[in-house]
Amino acid sequence: MKPSEIKEISTKELKERLETEKDDYTKLRLNHTVSPLDNPLKLRLSRRNIARLLTELKKRQMSDTSKS
User: Fold this and answer.
1) Is residue 49, in this structure, part of any structural domain at all?
2) Taking the CB of the first residue and of the last residue of the chain, which one, N or C, has fewer CB atoms within 10 A?
3) Residue 2: inside a domain, yes or no?
4) Which domain holds residue 37?
5) How many domains does the chain contain in total?
6) Burial degree of 53 (CB within 10 A; 0-12, 13-18, 19+)
7) Where are the alpha helices (DSSP H) in 1-68?
8) Looking at residue 3, what is its pLDDT?
9) Is residue 53 part of a domain?
10) Residue 50 in contact with residue 23, Cβ under 8 Å?
């Protein structure tokens, strides 16, 4: 997911995507522990997507508090 795509998403949808990404990452990690994944780079990409979502969410929270 690109940063430009993340900026267009509403805050509510951003939180929902964050939860689904976290769930997917957990499942990937467990599957990788049991038997190696075909493409272990999926773990890295998933972690980075979570970080991007968290960064955008934090940025929005900081801008909301500075406006108040």
Assistant:
1) yes
2) C
3) no
4) 8-23+33-60
5) 1
6) buried
7) 3-8, 11-34, 41-67
8) 84
9) yes
10) no
